[in-house]
């Protein structure tokens, strides 16, 4: 049973709410159509075993990663090297955080997207017309020592457990970036060297049970604006990925992460790799927690198509820009499905 604290920040705080408030209801043309969503298995969204990434099978694994980035924009990974206890600990901490009394949670509240640590609800309540059925805590997490002092201190082990997780996920992200660089035929360090000082952000998404999930979203369709996302989710389905015009449910597989290509990777790869639309839907019965890590350039980093991928047949699709410029455009225009990338395209001759 949902406790009194398992409520959205801004929703009517009436116990046993059995209808979605009007502010969450999408226009009819923009609803999730849940009956038309297709199921997936490990072959629909490739499940890649990273076990031999530093052994003799490296080339094979890199080929699989490259194919997944090109064809799907999404893949799942197992044997990723992050210990189960570390993953369990952060999932538990996230659950505990969202079950804290409201007064405790709200100490972290802000609706200003430029704040590096903040609890908020929906997506961007200052700009959006319809709300989303989600609360989220966003944290910057690299370099750790610059941000950790801003993080919540309740639950008491929050900083320790989350810090440990962030360090591990960063190591994994760097390995993936090397593999993705190689899969593009670039030198192993190419991507990593072009991210300035690097950045790492994290969200803890909390989707409470929803009485009318067919009327609203946890998160509507969007692409991730960062470089790559490494998503940890609990055992409740909710993530869906758009493929060939159809939404596909990515059902959770224990001990795996979902990796997806973000807008910056699409730019660096000069459109070879795709930043794919995805969304989160909610359900009547169970709360859901997901924890994406958004690996990204630092704000001053200059992003553009890799020189090595530009030639006569493949002219540069995008102009160069700083990540800061991109980031501001993104937050100001809201979570729309049209690609923010279009604003950075070079008009074709
Ligand atoms: C996101 C996202 C999906 C999920 O936070 O960008 O796509 O399953 N989340 O929560
Ligand atoms: Ni996303």
Automatic annotation (TrEMBL):
InterPro entries: DIOX_N, IPNS-like_FE2OG_OXY, IPNS-like_sf, Oxoglu/Fe-dep_dioxygenase_dom, Plant_2OG-oxidoreductases
Residue ranges of every copy of the Fe2OG dioxygenase domain listed in the record: 197-297
Cofactor(s) required, per the database record: L-ascorbate
Chemical reaction(s) catalysed: salicylate + NADH + O2 + H(+) = 2,3-dihydroxybenzoate + NAD(+) + H2O
GO annotation terms (biological process): defense response to oomycetes
Pfam families (UniProt xref): 2OG-FeII_Oxy, DIOX_N
Keywords: Dioxygenase, Iron, Metal-binding, Oxidoreductase
GO molecular function: dioxygenase activity; metal ion binding
Source organism superkingdom: Eukaryota
Family assignment from sequence similarity: Belongs to the iron/ascorbate-dependent oxidoreductase family.
Protein's name in the database: Fe2OG dioxygenase domain-containing protein
Organism: Eucalyptus grandis
Lineage of the organism: Eukaryota, Viridiplantae, Streptophyta, Embryophyta, Tracheophyta
């Amino acid at each position: 049973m949902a406790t009194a604290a398992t409520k959205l920040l801004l929703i009517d705080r009436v116990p046993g709410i059995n209808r979605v408030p009007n502010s969450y209801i999408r226009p009819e043309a923009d609803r999730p159509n849940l009956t038309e969503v297709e199921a997936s298995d490990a072959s629909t969204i490739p499940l890649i075993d990273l076990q031999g990434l530093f052994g003799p099978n490296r080339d094979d694994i890199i080929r699989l990663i490259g194919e997944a980035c090109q064809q799907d924009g999404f893949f799942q990974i197992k044997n990723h090297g992050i210990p189960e206890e570390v993953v369990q600990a952060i999932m538990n901490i996230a659950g505990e955080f969202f079950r804290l009394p409201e007064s405790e949670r709200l100490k972290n509240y802000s609706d200003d997207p430029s704040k590096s640590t903040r609890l908020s609800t929906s997506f961007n309540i200052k700009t959006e017309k319809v709300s989303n059925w989600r609360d989220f805590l966003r944290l910057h997490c690299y370099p750790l020592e610059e941000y950790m002092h801003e993080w919540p201190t309740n639950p008491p082990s929050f900083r320790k457990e989350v810090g440990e997780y962030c360090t591990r996920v960063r190591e994994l992200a760097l390995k993936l970036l090397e593999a993705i660089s190689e899969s593009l035929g670039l030198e192993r360090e190419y991507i990593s060297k072009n991210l300035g000082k690097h950045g790492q952000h994290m969200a803890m998404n909390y989707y409470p049970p929803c009485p009318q999930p067919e009327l609203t979203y946890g998160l509507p369709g969007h692409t991730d604006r960062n470089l790559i996302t490494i998503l940890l989710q609990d055992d409740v389905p909710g993530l869906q990925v758009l493929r060939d015009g159809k939404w596909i449910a990515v059902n959770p597989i224990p001990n795996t992460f979902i990796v997806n290509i973000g807008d910056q990777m699409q730019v660096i790869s000069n459109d070879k790799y795709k930043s794919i639309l995805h969304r989160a839907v909610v359900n009547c019965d169970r709360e859901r927690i997901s924890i994406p890590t958004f690996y990204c350039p630092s704000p001053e980093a200059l992003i553009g198509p890799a020189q090595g991928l530009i030639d006569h047949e493949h002219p540069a699709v995008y102009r160069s820009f700083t990540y800061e410029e991109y980031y501001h455009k993104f937050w100001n225009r809201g979570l729309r499905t049209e690609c923010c990338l279009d604003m950075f395209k070079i008009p074709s001759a």
